[in-house]
């Protein structure tokens, strides 16, 4: 059974999962990794969830304040051996629920064109492709999404 823990970026399981995520991103993004890595720091993140299968951490996600009542989803990851079990959707749903509890009215996020499984996940969960925002404006490899929480 999958359980979701609300925590913060100091959680050791979150830190270990993020290390795995960063290795995957570095391979997929290649030369563009340095550009994207600057936007994936956890110093401005306060809201983290970690998914557990029993006592084993299998996935994570986070959100931070983007602007006003908009939260930005960050650092979504599920271990490859645990994919295909709806864990990422559970993580995303938990993040949205938490954000809504904190009076956020929408979520935005960015992923890359090299991540078709992430694009499919967000579309499946009601996110719509939107104009690239903020630091992703004009970046062809970025795909940005938004979703109303109301």
UniProtKB/TrEMBL annotation:
<protein>
    <submittedName>
        <fullName>Ribosomal protein S18 acetylase RimI</fullName>
    </submittedName>
</protein>
<dbReference type="InterPro" id="IPR000182">
    <property type="entry name" value="GNAT_dom"/>
</dbReference>
<dbReference type="InterPro" id="IPR050832">
    <property type="entry name" value="Bact_Acetyltransf"/>
</dbReference>
<keyword id="KW-0012">Acyltransferase</keyword>
<dbReference type="InterPro" id="IPR016181">
    <property type="entry name" value="Acyl_CoA_acyltransferase"/>
</dbReference>
<dbReference type="GO" id="GO:0016747">
    <property type="term" value="F:acyltransferase activity, transferring groups other than amino-acyl groups"/>
</dbReference>
<keyword id="KW-0808">Transferase</keyword>
<dbReference type="GO" id="GO:0005840">
    <property type="term" value="C:ribosome"/>
</dbReference>
<keyword id="KW-0687">Ribonucleoprotein</keyword>
<feature type="domain" description="N-acetyltransferase">
    <location>
        <begin position="2"/>
        <end position="150"/>
    </location>
</feature>
<keyword id="KW-0689">Ribosomal protein</keyword>
<dbReference type="Pfam" id="PF00583">
    <property type="entry name" value="Acetyltransf_1"/>
</dbReference>
């Amino acid at each position: 059974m999958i359980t979701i823990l609300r925590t913060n970026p100091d959680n050791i399981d979150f830190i270990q999962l993020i290390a795995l995520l960063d290795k995957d991103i570095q391979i997929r993004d290649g030369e563009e990794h340095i550009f994207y890595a600057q936007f994936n720091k956890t110093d401005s993140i306060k809201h983290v969830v970690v998914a557990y299968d029993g006592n084993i951490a299998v996935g994570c996600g986070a959100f931070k304040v983007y602007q006003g009542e908009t939260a930005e989803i960050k650092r979504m990851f599920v271990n490859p051996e645990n994919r295909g079990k709806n864990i990422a959707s559970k993580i995303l749903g938990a993040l949205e629920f938490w954000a809504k509890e904190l009076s956020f009215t929408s979520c935005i996020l960015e992923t890359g064109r090299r991540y078709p499984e992430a694009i499919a996940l967000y579309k499946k969960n009601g996110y719509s492709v939107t104009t690239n925002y903020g630091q992703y404006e004009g970046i062809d490899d970025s795909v940005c999404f938004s979703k109303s929480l109301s």
